[in-house]
Amino acid sequence: MLRRSAEATVLAAFFAGTLLAGCSSSSDPAVAHADFDLDWDDGEIIVIALDDVRSFDAAALVAPDGSEIAAFQIDRDREISRDAVQPSVGTGVSGGSGGFGVGVGLSFPLGNDDPDEIGYRSVAKIRVPDMPAYRAGWQDWVLRIHQPAEDIWNERTLELPAPEPPG
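The structure assignment produced for this chain is given below.
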């Protein structure tokens, strides 16, 4: 009887672990802050760019008081990277007891078995409404980026440190 109880406990733990693993938020790695390119346009517009397998659909600059300045423009371009398949030329030299030979070979690929990678180039623009206030305390501001769900489990909202104002 004790052995069956132990087996039941192990089995229950296995199923619970499997269930929790299936409910995890995402199987793909999270986007790191370093993946974002932050820049300035016209000295008062923050430009946020990301090349990733997922796009983002919202971006905002969050002030220290919690108020948000939403992006006035978000562009999302779908990009498909295809492996470049090109003809190649090769040469060879062989020799042995039976003689000596030189050869030239040409290779023309007929197809590519590798699947294309689909990604997105997302670019958002946020106008800073009060640059003197931003310059005075930019370290207390953050950027909030929203990536929509690919399925019901992996919607994300990321916060990044706001960029230093231009010189």
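Interim note for the steering committee: The longest strand covers residues 117-127. Residues 45 and 127 are 4 Å apart (CA to CA).
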